[in-house]
Write a structure and sequence with these properties.
The chain has 75 residues and is α+β, with helices and mostly antiparallel strands. The chain contains 3 helices and 3 strands.
Amino acid sequence: KTDLEGSEQQFLKGAEKTIKTQRPTLLISIYHTASDFFNIKPLIESWDLNYNFRIVKPLDGEIMLETLLICEPAE
């Protein structure tokens, strides 16, 4: 799980090799910037790791608070 206060994209780019070889389940905060919300999922999809994706947001529906991208390896 990462919540790097807006540095998630840089973290993912730095961890790309490890993520590709280990295929961990990823829980990534995507609410810090619009770029995080719109670019993180396509970045991970471009690695073609056969992940299933879910976006989880608070019950109140506020996208800018604690929105989480869950990436799980498909079985």
